Amino acid sequence: MKPEFENIPLVKNEEKKRFEIEYNGHFAFIDCKETSQQIALIHTESEPELAGTGAAAAVVEKTLFYIEESGKKLLPFCPYVFAFIRKHPEWKRIVDERFEGYDKI
């Protein structure tokens, strides 16, 4: 994660059902669905003003830390999150082994 994002807090926006960070007045976020044992990450997006800044990667990494701390398992349906985990395989430790694409990570 780029240093400029390290101290930005991750917000769990219950109303919008997403995890988000705000940087310079703009948002990067991940839509999610949560059960008592799993968190499914559905779609990652950042506002156009944040393109190329690393904001999307930062919100993903912060969300993965949140999921790990919660003790829940990850279902990485979002292609961006899936690719992030392939690039950083140490995060496979929080992916639910029953996830259909688990063996492709």
From TrEMBL:
Domain N-acetyltransferase: 11-96
One Pfam family it belongs to: Acetyltransf_CG
Biological source species: Chryseobacterium edaphi
Highest taxon in the source lineage: Bacteria
InterPro entries: Acyl_CoA_acyltransferase, Gcn5-rel_NAT, GNAT_YJDJ
Protein name in UniProt: N-acetyltransferase
Database matches in PROSITE patterns: GNAT_YJDJ
